[in-house]
Design goal:
This protein is α/β, with parallel strands linked by helices. It has two domains: about 5-45 and about 70-225, Phosphoenolpyruvate Carboxykinase, domain 1, CATH 3.40.449.10; about 230-295 and about 390-575, Alpha-Beta Complex (Phosphoenolpyruvate Carboxykinase, domain 3). Helices cover about 30% and strands about 20% of the residues. It has 16 helices and 32 strands. The strands form eight sheets. Strands 1, 6, 7, 8, 9, 10, 11, 12 and 13 form a nine-stranded mixed sheet that branches. A six-stranded mixed sheet has the order 17-15-16-26-30-27, sandwiched between helices. It has a five-stranded mixed sheet with strand order 4-5-21-24-20, covered by helices on one side. α2 (about 30-40) runs antiparallel to α5 (about 140-150), α11 runs antiparallel to α12 and α11 (about 420-430) crosses α16. The radius of gyration is 23 Å and the shape is globular. Bound molecules: sulfoacetic acid and manganese (II) ion (MN).
């Protein structure tokens, strides 16, 4: 008798009608073969799927040019399909499962004709972890198949784990005709199913990533008592050799990867990289919070990465490994055969090809690399990946950081008064939008816990879950908030960011060890200026004061906007959060120092 996984694959093949079905074993030879097919046989629009880059500087690396309409996540085409619309909540697009499946069945009929369907068995988390989940994705894209092998633990071992069981997460993916009007990313939490059609782009197509490890997993986490979060996991080693583990939630394209790969600007400090995008958080038997990265690779933003700003990212990209490295929608220097992007610390070469493969004029106002150009690289190639990344239960977390991109208002860093106040602060964060998703860039939108596009259920229930989760932690981590993006009157960033962010991490460690006090303000605990280690950094004191300033008038406007966010959720909103908002308003109208 056929196994459930075989039956499912057969059923999908009957619907999508590929010419061939190939079960991937995850081997190096297989990946080489897929890349070769992508170079020699397949095309996306007028471009080959892969272009081999200079093996001298970027060994085993390939450039992928996507379809020009398929360059970022499409949140307006991303749905949660649960029978109850309120369970999906106003934070998600909703369709009933019946209607969604009917539509997808129509769109998927014969959609793989002329192509090969690759079956990708994979695990999220390492096989020895009690939190590992078995998954199978089918796809008709070699780019997706090669990417999934980098990002997840893909191979026959996953199939062996599944065996005769029907307990695996299903991902049905087809690029179909890449028509933006027939592009849907649909989640069926009750069926452990993601069905994505019409896009080959990262977050839309690598279904183990945002679709499963955040949207479906956040839903599972609520039922099972854990959290799936859009967070970096790092260990910060101090000069005494003590490592403090932290998570950091930041919206897409706001520097998570650079933070995860930070090379300390302060002597004696070192950052260890455990994850750059997703953290699964569990309560340990010791009552502490433990974090594990379910992924095995990085799908990071290329623009702005350079040897000066992110040397560890560059080292990772330039090193040779068991896995290929992919560049998506960067520019290309055809003479050196190297990828190029704005912000790389190289002079602009002559004769660049832009991200679409067209000749690029250096006088052009359009960038050569797409603003959301990306690299896909194995974390095993990262020189700062520590051995504890392989710990089955992850690492114990002492501090959780939440960040936003705000050119005004938010100070560089602050700490919450306690867990409940921290959950309120995280739930209320607003951030200016980036090119990671298809929408207007630079517009302020509320992005609670950097999860607005990724929370797979009603966000009011999610806030409730966060509050309850904190109650169950005997030793909860302390909660901190950061904004690297504040600008001065001239519109220039005040804080240099990147590797200098270690100064903020050091302040956090000093707070955790009760070495320093902080200034109690209306919004939380803000650094006393002299407690931020500014050795070797030349920022005038008045600028630093500006960076930490809390303007009560602007914060009152912010409070009104936060109330607007909460109103959408009606009486599903936890009263504790509303009380926190009321307390903030009271403090803003009182006589706090700043
Ligand atoms: O495309 S992804 O969703 O994987 C990257 C991101 O937007 O964070
Ligand atoms: Mn992300």
């Amino acid at each position: 008798m056929a196994k459930p996984v075989e039956e499912w694959v057969e059923e999908v093949a009957r619907l999508t009608k590929p010419d061939k079905v190939h079960w991937c074993d995850g081997s190096e030879e297989e990946a080489e073969k897929l890349v070769r097919i992508g170079i020699e046989e397949e095309r996306i629009g007028d471009q080959p799927v892969f272009h081999a880059l200079s093996g001298r500087t970027f060994p085993n690396s390939f450039l992928h040019r996507s379809h020009p309409t398929d360059v970022a996540r499409t949140e307006h085409l991303t749905y949660i399909c649960h029978p109850d619309e309120q369970t999906a909540g106003p934070n998600n697009n909703w369709m009933s499962p019946g209607e969604a499946k009917e539509m997808l069945l129509n769109l998927s009929e014969g959609c793989m004709r002329g192509r090969t369907m690759y079956v990708l068995p994979y695990l999220m988390c390492q096989a020895n972890s009690p939190y590992a989940r078995n998954c199978v994705q089918v796809t008709d894209s070699t780019y997706v198949a090669v990417s999934m092998r980098i990002m997840a633990r893909m191979g026959t071992h996953a199939l062996e784990r599944i065996g005769n069981s029907d307990d695996f997460v299903k991902g049905l993916h087809s690029i179909a005709d890449l028509d933006p009007n027939r592009r849907y990313i649909m989640h069926f939490p009750q069926d452990n199913l993601v069905w994505s059609i019409g896009s080959g782009y990262g977050g839309n197509a690598l279904l183990g990533k945002k679709c499963f490890s955040l949207r479906i997993a956040s839903w599972l986490g609520r039922r099972e008592g854990w959290l799936a979060e859009h967070m970096v996991i790092i260990g910060v080693e101090d000069p005494e050799g003590t490592v403090t583990y932290m998570t950091a939630a930041l919206p897409s394209a706001c520097g998570k990867t650079n933070l995860a790969f930070l090379e300390s600007a302060l002597p004696g400090y070192k950052v260890w990289t455990l994850g750059d995008d997703i953290a699964w958080l569990h309560i340990g038997p010791d009552g502490r919070l433990w974090a594990l990265n379910p992924e095995a690779g990085v799908f990071g933003v290329a623009r702005g990465v350079s040897r000066a700003t992110s040397p560890n990212v560059m080292r990772t990209l330039e090193s040779d490994g068991f896995y290929p490295t992919l560049f998506t929608n960067t520019a290309l220097d055809p003479r050196s055969n190297e990828p190029w992007w704005e912000g790389i610390d190289e002079p602009v070469p002559d004769g660049l090809e832009d991200w679409r493969g067209r000749p690029w004029d250096r006088g052009s106002s359009a960038p050569a690399a797409h603003p959301n150009s990306r690299f896909t690289v194995s974390l095993f190639q990262c020189p700062t990946r520590p051995p504890e990344s392989d710990e089955p239960r992850g690492v114990p977390i002492s501090a959780m950081i939440f960040g936003a991109r705000r050119t005004r208002l938010l100070p560089l860093v602050w700490e919450s008064f306690d867990w409940q106040h921290g959950v309120f602060c995280a739930s209320s964060l607003g951030s200016e939008t980036t090119a990671a998703a298809m929408h207007e860039v630079g517009v302020l939108r509320r992005d609670p816990m950097a999860m607005a596009p990724f929370c797979g259920y009603n966000m009011a229930d999610y806030f409730r879950h966060w509050l309850d989760f904190g109650q169950k932690l005997a030793c909860p981590p302390r909660l901190f908030f950061v904004n690297w993006f504040r600008v001065d009157e001239d519109g220039s960033f005040i804080w240099p960011g990147f590797n200098e962010n270690i100064r903020v991490l050091k302040w956090i460690i000093d707070r955790l060890n009760n070495r320093i006090s902080a200034c109690e303000t209306a919004i939380g605990l803000v650094p006393n200026l002299d407690d931020l280690d500014m050795t070797g950094l030349n920022i005038p004191r008045d600028k630093m004061e500006q960076l930490l300033e809390i303007d009560h008038g602007s914060w009152s406007v912010e409070a009104a906007d936060i109330e607007h966010l909460y109103r959408q959720f009606g009486d599903r909103m936890p009263p504790e959060i509303l009380q926190e908002l009321a307390s903030l308003r009271k403090r803003l109208s009182g006589s706090y120092r700043l």
